[in-house]
Task: structure prediction
Amino acid sequence: MALFSSRAAAEPGWITPEELVPLLADAAGPLVIDVRGPDEFSGPLGHIDGARNLPLDHIPAETEALKAETRPLILICHTDRRSAAAAHHLRGAGAADVTVVRGGMVAWHRAGLPASQR
Result:
C-alpha cells in the first residue's frame, strides 16, 4: 500500500516572496524558473534577478532536464496559476523538490522586492 496517493505526491510546495528572498542570497540556492512568456519576463513587472525564463508551453519538453536539476526548483509566473500548473506537471513526472511562489510576480512587486527588466 502506498503511503501517499498519487495526487498528494504530485502536490508542489508553496512559498511567499518574502520567504524566498533569503534563499536567493545563498550561492547554492534554488533555480528560479519563470514560466511567463518572454514579453512578460522583460515587461513592467520584470523578473527575479537570475531567474530562467522557460514559458509554460516549453515545460513538457524540458521535464527531464528539470528533473535532473540538483537544486530545488522555484516556479513563478504573473500570479501563480501557470507556475502551479507547471509544478503539478513536474511533480507528476517525478521531480522531487518543486515549489510555487504564492501570488507570483504580482505579489513580488507588491512586497517591494527588486525586479530586473534586462
Remarks:
- The helical segments are 6-9, 17-24, 38-41, 59-68, 81-92, 104-110.
- The radius of gyration is 14 Å.
- Confidence is low (pLDDT under 50) at residues 1-7.
- The longest helix spans residues 81-92.
